[in-house]
Design goal:
This protein is mostly helical. Helices cover 53% and strands 4% of the residues. It is built from 20 helices and six strands. Helix 1 crosses helix 4 and helix 5 (127-138) packs antiparallel against helix 15 (370-391). The longest helix has 32 residues, at 217-248. The radius of gyration is 25 Å and the shape is elongated. It starts with a helix and ends with a strand.
């Protein structure tokens, strides 16, 4: 295939692979969910909030409804603005937050695979090599353990930043600087981690490639400065609320936090794919976040790329100004940097970068730098396959390439997944939309160490969008801890008085969550005149108006 057929065929293959690797999600995207993980509920709420607030009051986008009365609470976690905008038409048409989440999971995988294809196809002109890079970068042992984290699946900006960086180093064109800024902005408006990863890609590429072309530095560096300036302008509205919460709430990750979420070398021998995990890798498996084995096919083809460090024929090279050998060295550097940084404080490199590059202060999970390792390995494998296809052309070579693509996907395959059934947000929450004034507290009101239990409360608030005392996010403000220290003892008198003093107007009670004390809680409220029962919903949920 070539030309439009290659692009169209690749898009179809990437979409089909996304369906296969998340199976059976596509069979019932409105009913299946990963809501057994509170992070999935958080991400569903974030994307629903962006779709709700952006067309109504964009200047107050970060003044989200959770953790009332704290401010800029959307900035306590990833912004997810790009995937939220992609899914917004579905939400505006009446789709549930879970439906949007599921479709964005599939779309994130498909778009990431397609972006990997674009990178290698532009470099080699080989669509099968492009598909191998795209598939192994999108569907691997790391991403397939992070279905609840939509930002971990929308990685398409990374290969496109790499492509724009390579083009800018080769051609020094203004339009490539603009494209680099565009893809950096896409990363930033998806995830702070991804923006840092993109910056590391650019910095690493410059360090590797400029020594081989110092004569062109006078042209290259101004173009990168232009890209940096355009990126800064584009992300300024995003930077402001995150800077405020860093200053006002001290939301800065220390190196001690990083140490807890760092990868280990053992993690690079860990494979979550069904075949590997059920055989040799089982003894290595410790934590899904610490799983970065790239696959046997990827490792073998990477070895081919390293062995065959010589230019591809002019007819297959997309950019004649850059030798594949230079790209291999660049990719090797990105791979190595990703691995080293993923180890966090296990090496001094992370601490040095933490001190000189302030955006690192917002990152907690150093292990996620392993995405750069996986990107570098996937691209190297694609170059290796492309070089073999040039050396051994013909139908037999094509068949072998397709077989390698298939085996690489089988290696990574974890489907079918077990999903939890989602029956919608309980209808009782919609009663709050007609109330003149609402500050809602849901009980049990969990202490800080169990704040993740609020995930369902946060998701249910998408039915009314009224201020919610509860919350769950990547950061928990001190104000929540102070309230939780008292509210946890509901329905004791001191807890109720504290709620009234905090401005709570309505209380949603979940008796089933109180366990054996459920009947006592309901009976205690029945004897109080200041608690007006408004409704009883599914699972015995009870909504009260607090006078």
């Amino acid at each position: 295939m070539s030309g439009r057929r290659a692009w169209a065929g690749a898009a179809v293959v990437c979409a089909l692979l996304a369906v296969v690797h998340t199976w059976p999600l596509a069979t019932a995207p409105g009913r299946l969910s990963r809501n057994d993980n509170n992070d999935a509920q958080l991400n569903e709420w974030i994307m629903a909030w962006v779709a709700h607030q952006l067309p109504r009051s964009p200047l107050h986008l970060f003044e989200a409804n959770i953790f009332f009365p704290a401010h800029d609470t959307l900035a306590f976690s990833e912004p997810l603005i790009v995937p939220a905008l992609l899914g917004a038409p579905i939400r505006w048409a009446g789709g549930s937050p879970v439906l949007v989440m599921n479709l964005m999971v599939i779309a994130g995988f498909a778009l990431t695979a397609f972006a990997g294809f674009v990178l290698l196809y532009r470099w080699s002109g080989d669509p099968i090599a492009g598909l191998l890079t795209g598939a192994t970068f999108a569907f691997n042992t790391h991403t397939l353990t992070r279905l609840p984290h939509v930002q971990a699946l929308h990685l398409y900006g990374l290969p496109l930043v790499l492509l724009a960086t390579d083009r800018l180093l080769s051609t020094h064109r203004t339009r490539d600087a603009v494209w680099l800024a565009v893809w950096m902005a896409v990363l930033a408006y998806t995830s702070g981690y991804l923006a840092v990863f993109g910056a590391v890609i650019i910095g690493t590429a410059l360090l590797v490639r400029l020594p081989h072309g110092l004569r062109g530095a006078g042209k290259v560096l101004p173009m990168f400065a232009l890209a940096a300036g355009l990126t800064a302008i584009a992300v300024a509205p995003l930077w402001a609320p995150y800077h405020r919460v860093a200053v006002d709430y001290g939301m800065v990750r220390s190196l001690d936090n990083v140490a807890e979420y760092s990868a280990s070398l053992k993690g690079y021998l860990t494979a979550a794919g069904t075949i590997h995990a059920s055989t040799w890798s089982r003894s290595f498996f410790r934590d899904p976040v610490d799983s970065f084995f790239p696959g046997v096919v990827v490792i073998a083809l990477t070895m081919v790329a390293l062995w065959r460090l010589r230019p591809l024929p002019q007819s297959t090279a997309a950019h004649s100004g850059t030798l594949p050998g230079e790209r291999v060295l660049m990719l090797l550097a990105i791979t190595g940097v990703g691995l080293i940084l993923s180890l966090g404080t296990r090496t001094p490199v992370y601490g040095w970068l933490y001190r000189v590059f302030p955006p690192m202060h917002g990152l907690r999970a150093a292990a996620r730098f392993g995405n750069l390792f996986l990107l570098g390995m996937s691209a190297l494998a694609g170059l290796g396959l492309a070089s073999l296809r040039v050396r051994y052309p013909g139908r037999r070579s094509l068949a072998v390439a397709i077989a390698l693509l298939a085996v690489a996907n089988v290696e990574a395959l974890r489907a079918p997944f077990d999903y939890r059934r989602f029956d919608g947000v309980p209808g009782i929450y919609r009663l709050l939309t007609s109330e003149p004034r609402v500050v809602l507290a849901e009980v049990p009101f969990y202490p800080r160490q169990a704040v993740f239990e609020n995930g369902e409360y946060v998701l249910n608030s998408t039915a009314h969008w009224r201020p919610l005392m509860n919350g769950y996010s990547g950061y928990t403000p001190a104000s929540y801890t102070a309230y939780a220290d008292v509210f946890w003892y509901f329905p004791r008198e001191e807890a109720i008085q504290a709620m009234r003093h905090a401005g709570v107007t309505h209380v949603m009670v979940h008796p089933a969550r109180f366990g054996p004390e459920a009947d006592q809680v309901v009976a205690a409220l029945a004897g109080r005149r200041d608690f007006e029962l408004m409704a009883v919903g599914s699972q015995g949920i009870r909504l009260y108006r607090l006078h």
